[in-house]
Write a sequence for this structure.
């Protein structure tokens, strides 16, 4: 079983359109939506949930008012300013800021700090018209984390194994933070989608460096290449210098947006133009995966 992750330096690069198209072109695959902060694949494929699983990123502190003597010691020791405290009242923990370090519990003389696992989100296994899909939802105010991405990937790989499918297509988180590291670590191919701009070149440089540190094979494609043929040329050169295969150029095409509005992957919505470019990118990525 192989894992292909589609990543980009930031959101809005067209990563999800490409990941959705690849998942349609590779029907014997599980699709894993690890871009939990901008879960557009959910909108494209209208999944029918088969089951759900609660996700906890860790434990968080909470004050038990009946035990609290209102001494304020916990407020003093918290380095993350997670408490709000009014004189004479038990402090209250803002779980968004609590890092779960446990220092307040150690410091509390009254044993009034409770630690319980926080409910940070849900992971779903769903059926879609293109095949199986694993996706996630964050609880209100929670941030995407590497742990959640790991869980989505784990469930997708398990499902692929039990169904005898040989590929997991991952829509990775954008950027280079913890969720994208979790989207890339250990995958067979990182397909980096770049945009032809100064910031796109910079973003790609950082992604190539990250995947090299992680020991992951990289391949590069440019989206909306005709906006700047010059920058596209620079990206191709940069990919070659980094030892990454250049998979192709995807032209600017209004129908890509129309497809997403119509809740379809571009390759489901139209046949030529950018959809044909995406087919070409997938054919080359597939042959790279086969060669491994
Ligand atoms: S567990 Fe750590 S971060 Fe959370 S409230 Fe206590 S001291 Fe602050
Ligand atoms: S340290 Fe314990 S007793 Fe003191 S204010 Fe905090 S929770 Fe209450």
């Amino acid at each position: 079983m192989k894992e292909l992750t589609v990543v980009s330096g930031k959101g809005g690069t067209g990563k999800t359109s490409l990941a959705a198209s690849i998942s349609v072109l590779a029907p014997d695959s599980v699709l894993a939506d690890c871009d939990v902060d901008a879960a557009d694949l959910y909108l494209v494929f209208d999944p029918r949930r088969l089951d759900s699983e609660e996700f906890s990123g860790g434990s968080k502190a909470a004050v038990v008012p009946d035990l609290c003597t209102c001494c304020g010691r916990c407020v003093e020791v918290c380095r993350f300013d997670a408490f709000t405290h009014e004189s004479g009242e038990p402090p209250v923990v803002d779980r968004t800021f609590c890092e779960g370090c446990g220092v307040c519990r150690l410091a509390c003389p009254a044993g009034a700090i409770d630690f319980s696992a926080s409910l940070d989100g849900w992971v779903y296994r769903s059926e879609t018209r293109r095949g199986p899909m694993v996706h996630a939802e964050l609880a209100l105010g929670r941030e995407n984390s590497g742990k959640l991405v790991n869980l989505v990937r784990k469930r997708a790989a398990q499902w692929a194994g039990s169904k005898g499918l040989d590929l997991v297509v991952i829509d990775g988180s954008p950027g280079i933070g913890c969720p994208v590291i979790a989207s890339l670590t250990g995958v067979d191919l990182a397909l980096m989608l770049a945009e032809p701009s100064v910031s796109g070149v910079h973003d790609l440089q950082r992604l190539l460096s990250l995947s090299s540190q992680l020991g992951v094979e990289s391949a590069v494609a440019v989206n909306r290449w005709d906006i700047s043929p010059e920058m596209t040329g620079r990206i191709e050169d940069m990919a070659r210098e980094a030892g990454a295969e250049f998979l192709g150029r995807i032209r600017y095409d209004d129908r890509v947006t129309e497809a997403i509005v119509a809740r379809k992957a571009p390759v489901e919505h139209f046949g030529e133009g950018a959809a044909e470019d995406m087919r070409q990118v997938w054919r080359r990525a597939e042959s790279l995966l086969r060669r491994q």
